[in-house]
Amino acid sequence: MTQTLFPHINHALVPKTHPSMYLTHKYWARKPHNVVAEYIEHYSKTDEIVLDPFVGSGVTLLEALRIGRRAIGFDLDPLSILTMQVTAESIDVSKFDQAFDSIKADLESEINQLYKFPCPSCKKQSIITYVVWSYIINCPICKKRVLMAEVKRPKGKRQNIYKCLYCKQEFSYANVPIMGEQPIFLRAWCPNCKQVSKVNNPELELPTVQLSNVWYPKIRFSYNEDRPFTTKRRANTIEELFTERNLYALALLHARAVKIEDEVARRAILFVFSSMVPQASRLVPWRRGFLTGGPAWTVPEYLILPVHCEFNVWSRFENRFHSMRRGIENRNECLPPKLEYVESFDELQNRGQYLIDRINAIELSSVIPPNSVDYVFTDPPYGGAIQYFELDLIRVAWLLGKENGDVIDQWWKEEITINRGQEKNFEYYHKMLSASFSEIYKVLKPGRFLTVTFHSTDIDVWNSIIMAVRLAGFELEKSSINLLR
C-alpha cells in the first residue's frame, strides 16, 4: 500500500516584527510568532491540542490560542511560567492602571530623590535620567591610574584587551582589580524649566542609602558555593550588578509590588518589574547612539563592561509599564477575552483552553495520557549555547521573593543543558534530550507531527537532536525538522 505524503510547508517563512504583546519582556531566543503560527495552522485543526514541552517565552502556546487551538506549555523556568500566565490571561486595564498609580503615589518622589542633580539652566533640582560610569584601574604594567573610558582597544584583539595610555603596553581588563569608578557623563531632566541637560564629567553627590533596611536577593553566581556560573564574569553576586542606589530603589519597588491585592494586577506589575531589572543594572553598556533602541542587556553573560550605564529606576519602571500596557491592549485584541486556564489534562480535554505548568519534559507521560496530543511544536535547549537558568536568575531571584532566602531554587538540577558548573556534559545532555523525545512520542497521536526548530553551529549538538528524535521512533519527513509519529 502506497502512503500518501503529507503536504509539508516547502517555502521560506519570513519572520515578522513581534506585536506589542511579545515586546513587554525580554526572553532569550524568542521564536518569530508568525512562523510558529503558520506551522500550527498547517499541522493542526481548530480545537485540537498543541503541546510545547520546552515552551520558553510561550510563543507556541499563545499562537495556538490565537488561532483557535487548545494549548499546553511546559517549562522548568519560573520566568517562562510567569511570562505565559501574564500574556495569556485577560487583564483589566483599569485595575492594572490603578495598581501602577498606587505605586506611583507612594514611591515616585522618594525614588527620584535618589537621582537629584542641580539643573545647569535654572539651578533648581533636576532628575537624572542616566549616568555613564567608567571603572578605574591601575595599569598592571606601569601601575599608573587608568580611567577605562580613556583607553583604546587595539584592532583585531579580544574584547578584554586594552592599551595603556601611559606605557602603551597591552593588558587584559579581565584580570585587573577595579580600584573605583567615575561618572563621565549624565543626562537629566528639569521639571522646573523643562530643559534636558547633558553634562560631561559631572560632580555627583551620591545619596546615602540603608540597604540593611530593605530586602534584595544576595544569591551568588555559583553552584554549591564552589562551581562558578558559565555566564559569570566580574560580578560574584546579583547585588554586585547594581549601584547601591539602584539596588535600594529596586528593593522599594519590589516590596510595594508584592502588596498589590488584586492577584492578576499584582502578577502583571511584577512582570513589569522583572522586565526592567536588567535595565537598572550595570549590564547596560554605553555605546553612542544606543538610546535609539533603548537600554538593553544584549550579551548572554553577566558581563559588566568598563564603561556602562546606571539608569534611573523609576524612569525605567514607568517606561516598562507603558510597554506592558500596550501589550495588554494588543493581547486583548488578538486573543479571545476569556481563555479558561486549567490545571490538568482531563480538564483541558473537557472544558479548558490552556494548561501551563512547571513540568520536566522527561515526565510528560505522567501528566498527559498516551496518544492524546494532536501536534507538537518545540525549540529544545541549545546544548548550553544559551544558559537559561543562569541568565534568568537576575529576575527569578526577585520573583521568588524573600521567603526563598538566598538559596538558588533547585530547578536547575533538572535543566537539560551542557554546563560545567552544574556538572552536566554532552552525554548528560544527549541522554536527557533522548528521554524527552521518547516522552513526546508517547503522548503524540499516531500519524501526527512533531516540528523541531533548532539553531546551533555545534555539529555534535545538531546530531544529538537528530539521533534523539529518531531513537524515540519518529520518522524524518522534512529537514526543517518535521517528524511523523
Give a concise summary.
The chain has about 475 residues and is of the alpha/beta class. About 30% of the residues lie in helices and about 20% in strands. It has 2 domains: about 20-90 and about 335-380 and about 415-485, Rossmann fold, CATH 3.40.50.150; about 95-330, no CATH class.
Tally of distinct domains = 2
Number of strands: 18
Task: Assign a percent range to the helix content.
Answer: 25-40%
Low-confidence stretches: none
Cα Rg = 25 Å
Q: Topology as H/E string?
A: HEHEHHEEEEEEEEEHHEHEHEEHHEHEE
The proportion of strand residues reads: 15-25%
DSSP helical segment count: 11
Task: Provide the structure class.
Answer: alpha/beta
Q: In angstroms, what separates the terminal alpha carbons?
A: 18 Å
Strand order, sheet with most strands: 13-14-2-1-15-16-18-17
Which oligomeric state applies? single chain
Overview of this protein structure:
- The structure is a single chain.
- The protein is of the alpha/beta class and 485 residues long.
- The chain has 2 domains: 20-90 and 335-381 and 416-484, Vaccinia Virus protein VP39 (Rossmann fold), CATH 3.40.50; 93-330, no CATH class.
- It contains 11 helices and 18 strands.
- It has helices spanning 33-43, 59-66, 78-88, 93-112, 244-257, 263-276, 313-334, 345-350, 388-400, 426-443, 459-472, and strands spanning 49-52, 70-74, 116-118, 125-138, 145-147, 161-163, 170-172, 180-189, 196-200, 222-223, 227-228, 307-311, 341-342, 354-357, 373-378, 444-452, 475-478, 482-484.
- The chain has an 8-stranded mixed beta sheet. Strands 3, 4, 5, 8, 9 and 12 form a 6-stranded antiparallel beta sheet that branches.
- Strand 8 (180-189) and strand 9 (196-200) form a beta hairpin.
- Helix 4 (93-112) packs antiparallel against helix 5, helix 5 (244-257) runs antiparallel to helix 6 (263-276) and helix 10 (426-443) runs parallel beside helix 11.
